[in-house]
Structures are given as C-alpha cells and as structure tokens.
Amino acid sequence: MRLSDLPTPCLVLDRRVLARNLNVMAQVASYHGVALRPHMKTAKSIDVARMALALNPGAAAGGEQGGVTVSTLAEAEYFAGHGLSDMLYAVGITPQKLDQVAKLNTAGADIIVITDDATVASAIAAHPAPPRTLIEIDTGEHRGGLFPDDPMVLDIAARLGPNLVGVMTHGGHSYGARSVPEMRQTAEQERLGCVHAVSRLRAAGHPAPIVSIGSSPTARAATSMEGVTELRAGVYMFGDLFQAEIGTHGPDDIAVSVLTSVIGNRPSQRRLLVDAGAIALSKDRSTQATANDYGFGILADMQGRRSLGRSIVRTAYQEHGVVELDPQLGTFAPPIGTKFRVLPNHTCLTAAAHDRYFVIEDDSETVTAIWPRVNGW
Amino acid sequence: MRLSDLPTPCLVLDRRVLARNLNVMAQVASYHGVALRPHMKTAKSIDVARMALALNPGAAAGGEQGGVTVSTLAEAEYFAGHGLSDMLYAVGITPQKLDQVAKLNTAGADIIVITDDATVASAIAAHPAPPRTLIEIDTGEHRGGLFPDDPMVLDIAARLGPNLVGVMTHGGHSYGARSVPEMRQTAEQERLGCVHAVSRLRAAGHPAPIVSIGSSPTARAATSMEGVTELRAGVYMFGDLFQAEIGTHGPDDIAVSVLTSVIGNRPSQRRLLVDAGAIALSKDRSTQATANDYGFGILADMQGRRSLGRSIVRTAYQEHGVVELDPQLGTFAPPIGTKFRVLPNHTCLTAAAHDRYFVIEDDSETVTAIWPRVNGW
User: Fold this and answer.
1) I need a surface site. Which of A1, A206, A233, B112 has the fewest CB within 10 A?
2) Which residues of chain B neighbour A147 with C-beta distances below 8 Å?
3) Tens-place pLDDT, residues B172-222
C-alpha cells in the first residue's frame, strides 16, 4: 500500500522522524540522569509507546521498561491492556474516578494519580484500593496545583499518608516563551518549585521519592535537573508547526501530517479546496500567536517537503479546507484528486480526530504499518 | 443510569429539544412544499436520522422514508448499513472516491455525488457504475461550485449525460449574517442562483429534476422556495451558542452539551478547572465573531439551565478547561467531582470528539439511551 492509495483525509506518521525525536528526548533525560516518562497524550498508541520505552536504559538492558504518562483513563485502560503497568495519570483525579483506577490497578496496573485538594486526598486515603499519589505543584503555569510553600501541601500529605509518593508539576507556561533563555528560566522554576515542595514533605517525614516535572519546551531547555527524578513530555514525539515556531525542534522534525485530496480549484483566485477541514485538522490556531501564522496548517508535498512555499489552509469548514496558494506558484491548478500533506499547528489536537496512523519509513511513500490510536475518555 | 453516574467528559443529548428542533425544520419544509433532506454531518447517528426521517410526510403515510445528506463516505457506509438508501454526499467527489461510492451503490445504496469540475464529470460518466450527480453551484459562498451562468455548467452537464440529476448549492455565507433580513437575502440568492442554473440545463435538454439548497440559517429565513425541490440543513437539529447568537434558534434550543467534572478550584481567583478541555469541546471559537463571546462554551447546571450566569470556559488545554466564574457567584467553590454541563460554541465540532450520546428526556437526569456516532472518514 502506498500513500497515493489511501482514502483521504487520513493521518500519516513518518517513523524515521518519530525515532529521531524520541532519541533526542531520551538523550536529554540520559544527560540529566533522570528517568523519561513519555506522555502518551499526543500519540495515544502502544506502538509509539513501545518505541519510546525501548530507549530507556533499563529496557535496553532487559530490565524494567519504565513508565508512561497518560491524559485519560481510556489511555490508562488501553495501555494496561497492552501490558504497561507504571502509568501516571496527569490530570487531577476526582473521587468518582478512583473506582476505575482501582479496578485497573487491581488487575495489574500501577496507576499513579495526582491531586491538589484536601478532600480528594482524604477520599484517596479512605478508598479500599488507594492508588499511589503525587501532589500537584504550581510552578508558574497557574492551571492546577498548589504553590510550593502552600501550607496545604503538608495538610494533603498528612491525609494521603503512605499513599503519597512525591510531587509533580507541568511548566506549561513555557508555551508562552519565545526564546531559549525564557524557556530555561521556566525550566528552572519547574525544578526549584518541585524541589522546594518535596524538601518540605521530606522534612515533615514523608519519603516522597518521586519528583516529576516536564513539558516539551522546558525539557529541552533545562540546564539542571538536580533533585528531579523524572521528566514528562509528549508533543516532542511528533512535533508541529507551533513547536517548530517556538524553537523546541527544527522545521523538519514534524512526524505527523494529514494526507488530503484536492476537491476543488480556482486558479484565478490562487486557491484550492481540500478534503481536510476543521475536523481532520482541528480548529487549533496555535501559530496565530507566533511570528508565522500558518492558518490551520501548511501544505506540503507527498514527501512531506514544504515545496509549495507558503501555501496555507486559510479557512477550515467541517470537511473543507480552503488553501491559499503561495503567489509564487502562479496559476498552479493541480487536478481534483491530487494528494498533498498538511503539517499541523498542534499535533495533539489534529491527531485526536483520527483513529489510526498510516506509517511510512522514508520518501518511498510506502505504507509499512497501520497503528491504532485510543481516543475518547 | 443517571447523568451523575457517567464518566466525564461525555456528550449529553436532550431528546426533547432535539424533537422540537426537528419539528420546526420539518414544518419549514412542509410550509414551502419541499422535501427535507436532513444533513447528518452534525448528528452522525442512525437514531437521530430515524427521528428526522419519521417526520417526512411520505414516511408518516407508510411510504418512502426520504433521503439524507452526508459529509463523509464513512457516514454513507454507516447509514447504508442501517438501511438508508437515498443519500447526497455533499462534498465534491474525487475520481479516486468513485469506486467506494459505486461499491455502496451496487450493494443497495443510492448515493448522489456532486461536482463542479469537467474532468471529474468525465470520470463519473466513464465509471462502470456511475452515481447520480448534481452540479454544485456557487450562489455567493465562494467555497465550491460554479456561478449559475458559467458556461462550464453546460459543459459538465454534457459530460455527465444521463447521470446528471440536477443542481445543488450551500448558502454557507448566511453564517456571516447577523439579522433575519440579511439571511433572507442570502436565502433568495441560494434559490435564484440554483433556479437560474437549472433552467439553463433544462433549456439545453437535461431533465435535471433536483434543485437542492440549504443551510440552517437560510432554511429558516427563506420567504420563497419556488423552483426548489429539497432543503438540506444539519446543525438545526442540535443548535449551539453560535446559532443562538445569530438567531437561527432560541437560547433554550441547544440539544447537546458536554458533561464535565470539576477537577480543581481556586475560589480566590473565581475560577474552576474542569475535565472538558480542547478535545472534548473542540477549539472552535465561533462566538468570538458575535456580540457575546462565550470562550470555549458556557457552563450550565445538570438540568442544562444557565443558572451560573456568565461562567465561561475561557482557556482550553488538551484535557483541562479553565472556567471563569461569573463574578455574581462570589466565592462559589463547588467540590472536586461536582458535575456541570457545557453548552458548545459549534456543536458539529464538539460532537466530533465523542463516539456516543448519552440521551436524556427531561430534567430527571435519567439516561434513557446510548446512541453511537460514526466519526472519521
């Protein structure tokens, strides 16, 4: 099967680029001497998880495979079903969700949950099968978590008792950074905040062995991970136009694209209609906040190269994308049915609309595998 | 099962509101004496399609059930598998997709395709099992289609030969309208453009019996449908904040919402964290272009009422929504796990992330059915 045979729109994954991206982050973790706990929220695929975990020093030596991070309990159930055990569910747990976690853990998984709430901590401790728990720390993103010196940190720890295994934070405010020095500063905030919080816990007699930090930008930019035990990141695996814009990876490190067919053309207006619209691409407009606004994605050729200049999906209807062609292409009017690939703004959201990857290895356009994704909740 | 028992986030469908919305549009079609060909792109559900089709005068008399519109071939295959035959695939066909259409048609479906391209018309005519075809007319939206007096209309008709069955248009520019007179004008453009194009075809000897127009706003606003044979509309079934803002339906006619749980609260900042984020709600920001910007959706209570004032999902991370609470709620801090419902900006895109509906009938919060959706392509 070749890319040109596939029904469109569909999701294409270049395994070479993926492998390169996985290697870079594995080296980052190795350099800092911390474990890498890949966040599967972007890929949602056991095949990708296995590639990522195979790079762990432990796995390479035939030992422990290492843990992953998940963003939904659907992911946790799916990965548990494929034999993964050590998982961090990195979205604040609710008391109502504890039963599902306990069910998976009783069946062999070891899902760690997070909380920043005293009532939830009590519910965890009172549960018949309480999961291991991290306290979520706010190191500057101000989404979830407690500030490192909040008295509540010790209150929650006391309620959790032996279920407490450490702290975690997500330096998501790094996405607002536009330079390496800024990201480096955010990375240091992540580290210092978590290290401070865990030192308070340990001083109060809690073992709290895990200090988990991470975001794709801060992971790459950090100069020190002293006191940190593990790194979480997800979007680095696939990359996207936004990550390339903020310099988290290079412009040629985007592993995922949407294969699309031309379904209309108006040469006089220098535009194409393609069958990748708002569902296939998502309505994410991340690059609007960067120096280069790529609309809903940039058109690439079948080899994934940006050979069409600045040809952008300017408007996205449900199943129609309107491509504004680069003026340098003149009256370029590829026939209806011509295929292109669209590089996405935000790969996590674009991939979420698709239930599988068509995997390619190189420029030959040969599809070598089909990998399923676990969507939903 | 009750709403409060459901895992979150998930999609809730109020069957009463749906039935009311379906009735209104059935009455519109009946008033104008045209067939209603409901567009299933929003609901993607056989259960919803059956409710819509049951309102056809033909079906009520035990006769023909009437046709539907689809936006993907996945929908066509799904509905064909559930016994629907007459379907209009309202996205420009490519030569490569003709085999799949032919396969479904040979197995009993009768999928009509659309084109505005001469080469595609020739490919249709040359296909061993050519589908019935409509020529797409541009009546002002400028997305796809030929202008009504374009000479190419007759060229394409000649190429299609007996496969030509009429014309279609989508007055999607009605979404830019902000008043009934404006929508009425767009509706009249839709009608006049299509009637003009089909009169040219008929004068040239083509029977062209079908004149298919529609969009939810123009369908409601039209004063005349003379010369039109059928009406297509989809989002009217569920409604959303954007449709309510532009006056296509009332504020209480939104049938679909996302059930969500509180996963964090910061009373001092008057905000909540909920587990409906960018995937569960979509990143659609339609209401940004209206008088009331609802962010990524407005928070409603478990009965779907807007009893929380102007509490808006201001920021949407992948699995986290940040709700800015209405200042009038003071230091309202519902415990972690409290459930709310979020009314969506754009129901087509919000629903696309979910694989099923949890159906309720009234304010009792009892879930009376689970209806699957057909996503993907």
Assistant:
1) A1
2) none
3) 898 888 888 889 999 999 999 999 999 999 999 999 999 999 988 899 899
Do B299 and B368 lie in one domain? The reply is yes
The domain that contains A177 carries what CATH number? 3.20.20.10
Mean pLDDT value across residues A100-105 = 98
Rounded CA-CA distance A346/A83 in Å is 29
Interchain proximity A95–B275, CB inside 8 Å: no
- Residue A252: pLDDT band (50, 70, 90) is very high
Say whether both B89 and B201 belong to one domain: yes
At residue A174, the pLDDT reads 85
**Mean pLDDT across the stretch A342-365?**
95
Domain count within chain B? 2
Distance CA B100, CA B113 (A): 12
Print the domain residue range for B216: 16-238
Query: Are both B146 and B210 inside the same structural domain?
Result: yes
Do the chains contact at A273 and B95, CB–CB below 8 Å?
A: no
SS3 of chain A: the string is CEHHHCCCCEEEEEHHHHHHHHHHHHHHHHHHCCEECCECCCCCCHHHHHHHHCCCHHHHCCCCCCCEEECCHHHHHHHHHCCCCEEEECCCCCHHHHHHHHHHHHCCCEEEEEECCHHHHHHHHHCCCCCCEEEEECCCCCCCCECCCCCHHHHHHHHHHHHEEEEECCCHHHHHCCCHHHHHHHHHHHHHHHHHHHHHHHHCCCCCCEEEECCHHHHHHCCCCCCCCEECCCHHHCCCHHHHHCCCCCCCCCCEEEEEEEEEEEHHHCEEEECCCHHHHCCCCHHHHCCCCCECCEEECCCCCCCCCCCEEEEECCCCEEEECCHHHCCCCCCCCCEEEEECCCHHHHHCCCCEEEEECCCCCEEEEEEECCCCC
Question: Among partner residues B144, B279, B336, which is closest to A349 by beta-carbon distance?
Answer: B279
- A244 domain-assigned: no
- Alpha carbon of A211: minimum distance to chain B alpha carbons (Å): 21
Of B91, B262, B280, Cβ closest to residue A320: B91
Q: What is the mean pLDDT of residues A44-51?
A: 98
Q: How confident is the model at residue A33 (pLDDT cuts 50, 70, 90)?
A: very high
Hey, what amino acid is at B48? Answer: V
Q: Residue B100's closest chain A neighbor by CA?
A: A7
Residue B91 has its nearest CB partner, among A116, A275, A337, at A275
- How much of chain A exceeds pLDDT 90, in percent? 89
ipTM of this complex prediction, to 2 decimal places: 0.96
Residues B231 and B307 in one domain: no
CB A281 within 8 A of CB A256: no
Whether residue B96 and residue A261 make contact (CB cut-off 8 A), yes or no, is yes
| Chain A residues inside the 8 Å CB shell of B275 | 91, 94
Same domain, A103 and A191: yes
pTM of the predicted model as reported, rounded to 2 decimal places: 0.97
Nearest to B355 among A92, A352, A376 (CB): A376
Nearest C-alpha in B relative to A95: B337
CB contact under 8 A, B349 and A278: yes
Counted across chains A and B, CB pairs separated by less than 8 A come out at 138
CA distance A139 to A169: 7
Ranges of residues in chain B whose predicted pLDDT is under 70: 58-64
Nearest CA in chain A to B10: A377
A60 to chain B, closest Cα gap in Å: 32
pLDDT tens readout for residues B270-292:
999 999 999 999 999 999 999 99
